[in-house]
Amino acid sequence: MLAEYAVRVEQSGGRRFAEPSHPYRNDFQRDRDRVIHSRAFRRLEAKTQVFTRRYSDHFRNRLTHTIEVAQIARTIALQLGLNGDLVEALALVHDVGHPPFGHAGEKALDSAMRAHGSFFDHNLHALRIVEDFEMRYAAFRGLNLTFEVREGIIKHSHDYDASQFPELAEYLLDQRPPLEAQLIDLADEIAYYTADLDDGYEAHLLRLEDICEGLPVFARFYREAERTYPSVMEKLKFNEALKRLLDHMVGDLIRNIEKRIRNAGIKGLEDVRACRHRLAAFSSAVEKERSETKKFLYANLYFSAALDPEKNDAERVISELFDLWMAHPENLPSSYQEKAKQEPLSRVVCDYIAGMTDNYIYEQYEKYCPKFNVAAGTTEKG
Ligand code: MG
Fold it and tell me: Which of 87, 189, 301, 351 could make an SS bond with 77 (beta carbons 3.0 to 4.6 A apart)?
């Protein structure tokens, strides 16, 4: 049963190109399936989330992270009576616009574009992938996704200014996105904070004592786990604490969204869209814990010197290949050389690099950059 403020598939804004309906899958289910069958989705497996394979094959990559976001988002959606099919499609597509090498890759690609008077934004890139780059269907370019999925790709994580992005006008930039899209960003944060604590601890970059000291909320759950399971190994108590932390954040989010819906007098989807603020948010107590967790992970993991070799690789490989293809576009695949007749070369080079997996970009680097310098991060992988 959908809540009155949920998105209803029968009222979807529809697809760019009309298609006959499917006998037993609705349009949002089909969109979810189109994302799963796309090449961009499969490439997530070989894209870094935080840790490269240098550390371990069982740490998260962008694909397993995406699956975790979908699981969390679907749980929240079903509790709130939101459209689970739309939420699942949005969660599965939310990271397809990410370039190789995680956050460092995104930063490097953005700096390369800024030197040419432009920028790189992974949400805008994701929209270009689903609208144009995926070549799968005979009847149209792209995946021909419904309006709500395209809108969610653009609006799930932040608001774009209508005057700065006139090309996005169709996505109702002056309105909030539906709750199905709003909750993706928070499910994403819950997924990666807990996963990064887990992988960081397994990688011996985060110590249990430091996590407990820096994050009182984690310490509380760890003490509970110790009381309940005093004789099990530390990692199992750690897992137990992490599981409780995840549940704590998800439970708070569900209850707080319900409260905000009530307080704002939301009766339908139009009220969600017209509301001045986003309705998906943690309570102030959990928001404080969220921000402590974020600060802790930045200080102790994301900015730790241990991850520098990967960051340096990302910066060097992306910037050198970008410059190489700008100077020698004849080395681009012919389809990209064709595209460069209609669009600025820098955008075409950016699109080409952004689509690559970590593996593929390293191959390109070895092929084209004769001064290939093997850094710590790359040599030890495998
Ligand atoms: Mg994500």
Answer: 87
Distance 92 CA to ligand 1 centre (A): 9
Q: What is the CA(190)–ligand 1 centre distance, in A?
A: 10
The range of the structural domain enclosing residue 349 comes to 308-379
Distance from the CA of 38 to the center of ligand 1, in angstroms?
A: 17
Chain-centroid distance of CA 76 in Å reads 17
Q: Is residue 1 part of a domain?
A: no
Give pLDDT, residue 307. 86
What separation in Å is there between the alpha carbon of 195 and the centre of ligand 1? 11
Residues 116-139: tens digit of each pLDDT: 999 999 999 999 999 999 999 999
Q: How many domains does the chain have?
A: 2
Distance 20 CA to ligand 1 centre (A): 32
Cα angle for residues 321, 322, 327 (degrees, 5° grid): 95
Mean pLDDT computed over 329-336: 96
CA of residue 379 relative to chain centroid, distance = 27
Q: Is residue 275 part of a domain?
A: yes
Amino acid present at 132: D
Ligand 1 centroid vs 14 CA: distance in angstroms?
A: 26
Neighbours of ion ligand 1 (CB under 5 A): 95, 188
Q: How far is the CA of 54 from the centre of ligand 1 (A)?
A: 21
**What is the biggest distance separating any 2 CA atoms in the chain, rounded to whole angstroms?**
67
Q: How many CA atoms lie within 13 A of 5 on its CB side?
A: 26
pLDDT digits (tens, 9 = 90+) for 141-177: 999 999 999 999 999 888 898 899 999 999 999 999 9
CA of 67 to the centre of ligand 1 (A): 10
User: Does 36 reside within a domain?
Assistant: yes
Specify the DSSP element, H or E, that contains 164: none
DSSP string covering 274-342:
H-SS-S----HHHHHHHHHHHHHHIIIIIT-GGGHHHHHHHHHHHHHHHHHHHH-GGGS-HHHHHHTTT
